[in-house]
Each structure stands twice: as structure tokens, then as C-alpha cells.
Specification:
44% of the residues lie in helices and 17% in strands. The protein has 13 helices and eleven strands. Helix 1 packs across helix 2, helix 2 packs parallel to helix 7 and helix 5 packs across helix 13. The longest helix is centred in the middle third of the chain and has 17 residues.
Length: 336
């Protein structure tokens, strides 16, 4: 029996496009629609009546997929969940949260059961299997973050421009006089999973190094505290010594700064530390360091709106937010 994926392959389109042609929920070009209908006729595809019935009913619920490991808390996830819930309520929707590390099976159940009208995906990776699974079902989806823009052209997404954010941090650090800089990238497991923010951050660091001619030493972070300290010690005691540290992996920031102090380095006299992707108004160290904040409120409001638009007939939209240095301490020049 032919599936919606078979039809998509025959027509040379994404499964979600087949769904849009069948439902009429989005405007599709005449040429593309004709190709889809031809493929449907050739393969004898018949969409399930039950699926059509489920899609015609509204639950007034959005599902937020936040993959996380049990017992590991990320302040960033909690902040986004609260902000997205508030934004969804403003559109008349409640929020259902899923924290399955994989998420594919759960999202399929939600999409098929009618528990939610649309999905919001966090921690988006390149070639994210959740996107493919929901696309096959034609389920409205919006992304908080993005992996590969080519693969996500038919989906709405919003993200901080992580490549530009890291590049801005490097350029401003070089402008302050630093020539040897450590870039403390996302954790190695995030890079291995090819999370969008991790890959874009690496790209930004490398691009800025080429642009400025500065020596930017890229070091992946680690989720293991002992390994993290060991890596940081090696990075900061290399010769010649780096004079600045740009940090994208902010979860272990307290441990990083403790290790800097244990090496006898003073901030910013001996080592300038710059943060990329910090939470706005977070108490403690972030407010005392030069930083580029993650626009949590703006991103949350945008992704809730994009998810609601995806339920209707709105075309996919992409919002890449330009970074800016937060008001506060300036980047100090290297110590003479």
C-alpha cells in the first residue's frame, strides 16, 4: 500500500507538501500540486479517513518537544518552556510538554491522536528525525532553532543567528586587542548530535578567525566535570598563553570560572571572558561579564505565533535574529 512518503518521492517534494495539497491548508504552486496529484493517481494512494477526521478537529493545544536526559536540569529549557507557554496562552492555546530524549515515537502518537494541533521542536539538529516523522504525517510544526536551512525550507523557524553571535564575540574581542583566543564551544555530545546552535557556533568562530587573522583555538566542552576541568586547564596553560576566553557552553560556567581562578588567573586582568547565549537578567556571573544574550522572550513569542500560523494557511517563515552585545561591562584589553 502506498504511503504519503512514497507519493512525495514520486513527485519530488517533501511529505508535508503532499499533505498541504490534500488538505488545502497552504497555498501550493499549480505545477507542484499537479505533480503531487499525478503521483497520487499513479500510486493509487488513499489518505486514511480517520486521519482526515482527526485533522479537522482542534484541541487548542501545542506540544513542545524538549529532549532531555532524566536528572539533568537546564535552566535554558525551563525559561523557554515558561515563555512559550505564556505566548501560546495569548493565542488561546495550552502547552503540552514532551521530554523524551528521542521524541519521534511520542510525537507520532500525539500527531495521530489529535492531542495537539501543532508541534514546537527545541534542540533542533541537522537532519532531525522528528522533522521527517512529523512531515510524513503532514503535522503543523515550528522550530525553535534550526539545523540545515535547505532541509527546513518548508517549515517555519526562529533562531538566534549563532554563527553571527560567535563571530561578533570574536571580532569585538580582537578589537579590544586580543590575538590569541580560546573559543569554548558546545559540549562534544551536542556537536556529535549536530545540534544547530553547536554547528552554527563553530562555523562562526572559524569564519571570524579567517576574517580577523586572530588565532582562535576551538575547544569542545564536556558534560563531565572532571574532563571539562582538564580540557580547560590544557587550553589556558598552552604557550603562548591565550588572553581571552569566549564561552558558548554556559551550563558549567561556575565550574569554568572556578578552574580559571584555581589557575591563578584574574578576570579580566589576566583573562577576558565573554559569554555567548546567556539568559537575560540571570543573576550571578553573567551580569558581570561581557555577553551576548539569548533573546528568549522574542524567540518564544515568535515560535508560538509561527506554530499557530502553521495550523492555518500561513506560508513558512524564517526569522534569524541578529545578535548584539548586552549593555554592561566592556571587553577588557589584554594585560600588558
Amino acid at each position: 500500500m502506498a504511503t504519503i512518503k512514497d507519493v512525495a518521492e514520486r513527485a519530488g517534494v517533501a511529505p508535508s507538501t503532499v499533505s498541504y495539497v490534500l488538505s488545502g491548508s497552504r497555498k501550493i504552486s499549480g505545477e507542484t500540486a499537479a505533480a503531487v496529484r499525478a503521483a497520487i493517481a499513479e500510486l493509487g494512494y488513499h489518505p486514511r479517513a480517520s486521519a482526515r477526521t482527526l485533522r479537522s478537529a482542534r484541541s487548542e493545544v501545542l506540544v513542545l518537544a524538549v529532549p532531555r536526559e532524566p536528572g539533568k536540569y537546564r535552566a535554558m529549557d525551563g525559561r523557554f518552556a515558561v515563555e512559550i507557554s505564556d505566548a501560546a496562552r495569548g493565542h488561546g492555546y495550552d502547552l503540552l510538554m514532551m521530554t523524551d530524549p528521542d521524541g519521534v515515537g511520542g510525537l507520532r502518537r500525539v500527531a495521530r491522536s489529535g492531542l495537539a494541533d501543532a508541534a514546537i521542536l527545541m534542540a533542533v539538529a541537522e537532519a532531525d528525525p522528528r522533522i521527517a516523522a512529523l512531515g510524513e504525517l503532514g503535522f503543523p510544526t515550528a522550530l525553535l532553532g534550526h539545523g540545515d536551512e535547505r532541509d527546513e525550507a518548508e517549515l517555519s523557524w526562529v533562531d538566534l543567528d549563532w554563527a553571527a553571535a560567535v563571530a561578533l564575540a570574536v571580532r569585538e574581542t580582537v578589537a579590544a586587542g586580543h590575538r590569541r583566543i580560546v573559543f569554548w564551544a558546545s559540549a562534544d555530545h551536542e556537536i556529535a548530535a549536530r545540534r544547530g546552535y553547536a554547528m552554527h557556533g563553530l562555523a562562526g568562530a572559524r569564519a571570524a578567525a579567517r576574517e580577523t587573522g586572530a588565532e582562535v583555538l576551538v575547544h569542545p566542552s564536556s558534560a563531565d566535570p572532571g574532563e571539562l576541568r582538564s580540557r580547560l586547564r590544557r587550553a589556558l596553560t598552552a604557550a603562548p598563553a591565550p588572553t581571552a576566553l569566549i564561552v558558548q557552553h554556559l551550563i558549567p560556567l561556575d565550574g569554568l570560572l572556578d578552574e580559571v581562578a584555581a589557575l591563578g588567573l584574574r578576570c579580566p586582568q589576566d583573562l577576558s571572558v565573554v559569554l555567548v547565549g546567556s539568559l537575560p537578567d540571570e543573576p550571578g556571573h553573567p551580569g558581570r561579564l561581557p555577553r551576548i544574550d539569548l533573546p528568549v522572550g522574542q524567540m518564544s513569542a515568535a515560535v508560538a505565533r509561527l506554530a499557530v500560523e502553521a495550523i492555518g494557511t500561513g506560508p513558512p517563515r524564517h526569522e534569524l535574529i541578529p545578535p548584539r552585545l548586552a549593555a554592561g561591562p566592556a571587553i577588557s584589553p589584554p594585560h600588558p
